[in-house]
Amino acid sequence: MNKKELVAHIADTADLSQQEAIAALNATVEIITNALKDGEEVTLIGFGTFKVNPRAAREGRNPKTGDTIQIAASNAPVFKAGKALKEELNP
């Protein structure tokens, strides 16, 4: 399912117009993104938790040349499925 299809399902399920559904989805994504940027976790009970895992700087290798390179530290977004979602997917 892509964003356009998701918006259509939101509009049908919540009895919203396409424009209202787009605005709701965009606002949700923006709020989650901003919370993660601020170092917060976002927990949706029954669905799952979004959080950021820091990755330390490390040394890697270029597989083509074998040269050693430095990989910069970064923050990786992570989603952990909640119990209810897991149960829905594994009846």
SSE order and pairing:
Elements: H1 3-13, H2 18-37, E1 42-44, E2 48-55, E3 58-61, E4 68-71, E5 74-81, H3 83-89
Antiparallel strand pairs: 1-2, 2-5, 3-4
Helix pairs in contact: 1-2
Taking strands numbered 1, 2, ... along the chain, how are they ordered across the largest sheet? 1-2-5
Computed over alpha carbons, the radius of gyration is 19 Å
Secondary structure category? alpha+beta
* Helix and strand pattern: HHEEEEEH
Instruction: Give the overall average pLDDT.
Output: 95
Function: Histone-like DNA-binding protein which is capable of wrapping DNA to stabilize it, and thus to prevent its denaturation under extreme environmental conditions.
Protein name: DNA-binding protein HU
Organism: Aliivibrio sifiae
Family: Belongs to the bacterial histone-like protein family.
Overview of this protein structure:
The longest helix is centred in the N-terminal third of the chain and has 20 residues. The chain has a three-stranded antiparallel β-sheet with strand order 1-2-5. The chain has a two-stranded antiparallel sheet with strand order 3-4. It folds into two domains: 40 residues; 51 residues, HU Protein, Chain A, CATH 4.10.520.10. It starts with a helix and ends with a helix. The chain has 91 residues and is α+β, with helices and mostly antiparallel strands. The model has no long low-confidence stretch (mean pLDDT 95). Helix 1 crosses helix 2. The chain is built from three helices and five strands, in the order ααβββββα. A hairpin with a 3-residue loop joins strand 1 and strand 2. Helices cover 42% and strands 30% of the residues. The chain is elongated, with a radius of gyration of 19 Å. One of its GO terms (biological process) is DNA-templated transcription. InterPro entries: Hist_DNA-bd, Histone-like_DNA-bd_CS, IHF-like_DNA-bd_dom_sf. Histone-like DNA-binding protein which is capable of wrapping DNA to stabilize it, and thus to prevent its denaturation under extreme environmental conditions.
